[in-house]
Amino acid sequence: MDEIRKNKNNILDGDFSGLDKANMIELLEEFPQKMRDALRLGEEFSIPTAFSPASAQNFKNIVVLGMGGSAIGGDLLSNYLADELSIPIVVIRGYDIPKFVNENSLVFAVSYSGNTEETLSALKKCLEARAKVVALTSGGKFEVLSKENNFPVIKVPAGIQPRAAISYLFFPILKVLERLDLIKERNKEIEETLNIIQELSREYSSKSPLKNNLAKKVALSLYQHLPLVCGSEGLLEAVAMRWKTQINENSKWPCFWNVFSELNHNEIVGYEIENNINRQVKIIYLEDKEGSLRIEQRREITRKIIEDKVAEFIVCPTKGKGKLACMFSLIYLGDLVSYYLAILNRVDPSPVACIEDLKKELAKH
User: What are the angstrom distances between the C-alpha of 360 and each of 66, 160, 170, 250?
Assistant: First the structure.
C-alpha cells in the first residue's frame, strides 16, 4: 500500500498534460481572471426598461432554469441570498414549469451550450407565461430564440465545459440582481473572494507540491474510496452538491452528498451496522467557520458516533469572513480535488462520454 501511495504521489507532482488533453487545469488556475470577466459581463449587461429597478419591485419570484452545471449557479444564489431577498429563488431542472411562473416572475434561463433540450422546453413555457426572461448562454438555439422573441441575453465565452464555467453562470446574475436593486451591492465581499481565490490558485496549482497542496492531499485520500460530501443547511448546501457533481463528471467516480442537520434524521442510522461498504466511505465535511454553533455541535457528535465505522472523516474549512468567500473557497477546493482525483484515476477530466452517448440515443427518438 505504501508503494502504491508513493506512486500516486509522484503522479500528482508530475506532468499530467498527456491525460488532460483539453487543459482543464489552466481553466481552474485562471479562476480569478474568469471571475473578473464574469463580473464585467454582469456590469455591462444592458438592462431593458421592463427590467428597471422601479419595475423590479413588482417581481414576486426569481426563477433559474437550467440543468447540470448550468443550474448550480441558481442553487448557489438561492443559498447565498436566502437571508436578504424577500422573494424566493426557485431552480427548475426539467422540461416543465410551475403554475406560479407568470408576468411577475424574473426568469434567468441558463444553458451554457444554448441547446439543452429540457431548458429550451421550460424557456418556451416561460415565454408563454409572459415572464420577464434573461437568457445566459454562449449561443446555440437560445441565442436564436432570444432574437426571435426579443428578450435580452448575457453572452458568455464559448468553448468551456459548463461545469468549468461556474464564474460565468453565477456572477453575471448576481450583478444583474444588484443593479436591479433587488440586493445590496457587495463590492467588499467580491474583493475578499477574489483575493482569497487568487491565493488559493497558487496553493492548489499543479506546480504546488503535494506536501503543501490541500487539494492534492484530499484527492489522494479519496482515491479508491467512496466519497460522501456533507454540507450544512443554508450556505454550504449547494456547495456540497457541487463537490458531488464535480467528482462525478471530472473524476468519473461515484460520489454522494447530504446536509446537516437533515442527515442526523436518517443517514446516520446507515452506519449502525459495521460492513465492508461503510469501510470504503470517506466523509468530507465542509465546515463553515462562520456558521452555526449548533451545526458544529451536531457535526462533532456525529463524528464520534460514526468515525470508527467509516474509512476516514475529512474536515475542509471555509476561508474568509464573508459568505461569498466562504462559498467559493470550498467550491474552488472541490473543483481542484475532483481534477486531481481524475489524474489519479488516469482519466481525462474534460470528456463526459456517458452524457454524450445518452444525447445521441435521445436524438434518435
Answer: 20, 20, 29, 21
Q: Is 249 a catalytic residue?
A: yes
One of 8, 249, 319, 323 is an active-site residue; which one?
Answer: 249
Question: Does the annotation count 217 as an active-site position?
Answer: no
| CA–CA gap between residue 150 and residue 48 (Å, rounded) | 11
Q: Given 6, 60, 188, 359, which residue is catalytic?
A: 359
Catalytic residue list contains 225: no
Q: Where are the beta strands (DSSP E) in 186-272?
A: 226-232, 256-260
Residue 278 contacts residue 228 (beta carbons within 8 Å): no
pTM of the model: 0.95
Residue-range domains of the chain with CATH: 2-21+208-344 (3.40.50.10490), 26-185 (3.40.50.10490)
The answer to whether residues 236 and 330 touch, using CB atoms and an 8 Å cutoff, is yes
Element of type H or E holding 65:
strand 61-65
CA atoms within 13 A on the CB side of 193: 25
Per-residue pLDDT of the chain (365 residues; tens, 9 = 90+): 455 566 777 789 888 889 999 999 999 999 999 999 999 999 999 988 878 777 778 899 999 999 998 999 999 999 999 999 999 999 999 999 999 999 999 999 999 999 999 999 999 999 999 999 999 999 999 999 998 999 999 999 998 888 999 999 999 999 999 999 999 999 999 999 999 999 999 999 999 999 999 999 999 999 999 999 999 999 999 999 999 999 999 999 999 999 999 999 999 999 999 899 999 999 999 999 888 899 999 999 999 999 999 999 999 999 999 999 999 999 999 999 999 999 999 999 998 888 888 888 888 88
**CA atoms of 285 and 304, how far apart (whole Å):** 13
Catalytic residue, from 184, 211, 265, 365: name it.
Answer: 265
Angle (CA) 84-167-30 rounded to 5° is: 140
SS3 label, residue 223: coil
Q: Which amino acid is at 106?
A: L
